[in-house]
Design brief:
By secondary structure, this protein is mostly helical. It contains 13 helices and no strands. 84% of the residues lie in helices and 0% in strands. Helix 8 runs antiparallel to helix 9 (232-242), helix 9 runs antiparallel to helix 10 (249-262) and helix 10 (249-262) runs antiparallel to helix 11.
């Protein structure tokens, strides 16, 4: 009897302990989810700062490899060279860009009015105008307002991202070692592999993105200049900047150019739209795949879904960083789950005879 009562007491205590452990795990998980949800924009700004550090260190790698100089000196050249090139470009074309921006902002209302008049002359244009008026226009306005709304504001985000990028660039090993410290001793090698894969993937994405942005800016500016569209430099820069947003960016970038072309003629607007489509096709189908050899292959459907989710959570910053964030998540799943499970599954030879 004493043994039975002692066994029952141990079972009850064991059951109670498991209940408390499960409750603690659930509470901890919910707390982490709530903290991440509240601080999600901060984490995205940290990722943007990491991309800045990846850019400077990636450029320093090239300089160090080509010139056989010390790492610190190569990093200093990459930072100073980037700032000098940016200042020189602003010195030579900054005034022209400013004048074209002012011209575009002054002519945009008349451009929209003229485009509406042109569109009203065709049945398809009338249907588009009907859809964009009334309740639908208010819905579009509300969607755009929530889309561009972020918790810290655009300028506040930019300042924080620059400071974070400076700290990550100055001493990346400090933060890398801090992340590796979270791994158990027997998993340190896995942590190194994950960080190296993430670094390689982010460098590949950043390189392809920068080259694509520069190339699409030049192609659009040249193409629109040939057609005779005004403010081509600004339209090219808008297209280049929006190249950071896959799927949605190219569509948004077409709008001001096509609207300006509508003021000339419908034929010109069609030609301008074809120029945008042709340039985007060249960059997306030829240039980008050649540059993205080192980046993980992301399924288009997952990319679009991640953009929609990130846009809902964090607005424009979330959409810009959706692709690198998705690449990081896929690498983590591959290293921590897929490879471990596939290693645990014994491989049996397949018997081809029936």
């Amino acid at each position: 009897m004493d043994n039975q009562s002692e066994n029952s007491t141990q079972k009850k205590s064991s059951y109670t302990l498991k209940v408390w452990q499960t409750t603690a795990i659930v509470c901890l998980t919910l707390s982490i989810v709530l903290i991440v949800r509240v601080a999600f924009n901060v984490l995205l700004m940290a990722l943007a700062g990491v991309l800045i550090a990846v850019y400077f260190h990636g450029l320093a790698d090239i300089i160090e490899r080509k010139n056989w100089i010390s790492r610190k000196f190569a990093l200093l050249i990459s930072i100073a060279g980037t700032i000098i090139i940016f200042c020189v470009l602003m010195w030579f074309i900054g005034g022209k860009i400013q004048r074209q921006v002012a011209q575009l902002s002054n002519t945009l209302p008349q451009t929209i009015t003229a485009a509406k008049l042109k569109m009203s002359e065709s049945p398809i244009g009338q249907k588009m105008l009907e859809y964009s008026s009334g309740d639908n226009s208010q819905k579009l306005l509300d969607t755009a307002t929530s889309f561009f709304n972020t918790s810290f504001g655009i300028l506040g985000n930019l300042y924080i991202i620059i400071f974070l990028g400076f700290f990550f660039t100055s001493d990346p090993s400090l933060y890398k070692n801090g992340i590796l410290f979270l791994f158990p001793a027997q998993k340190k090698s896995t942590g190194h592999i994950i960080l190296n894969r993430i670094s390689l993937s982010l460098k590949g994405w950043l390189k392809s993105m920068l080259v694509s942005m520069v190339l699409i800016t030049i192609l659009i500016a040249v193409g629109l200049t040939i057609v005779g569209i005004p403010v081509t430099m600004v339209l090219g820069l808008i297209t280049g900047l929006l190249e950071m947003i896959p799927n949605f960016g190219p569509v948004i970038a077409m709008i001001p150019g096509v609207l300006l072309a509508f003021t000339i003629s419908i034929k010109t607007a069609i030609i301008v739209a074809l120029i945008y489509i042709a340039c985007q096709t060249i960059v997306a189908s030829v240039v980008t795949p050649l540059l993205q050899k080192k980046i993980i292959n992301l399924p288009p459907a997952l990319t679009l879904m991640s953009q929609l989710i990130m846009g809902t959570l964090s607005g424009v910053l979330g959409i810009i960083l959706a692709v690198p964030l998705l690449a990081i998540v896929i690498i983590l799943i591959d290293e921590l789950y897929v490879k471990r499970n596939s290693a645990d599954i014994p491989l049996h030879p397949i018997n081809e005879t029936m």
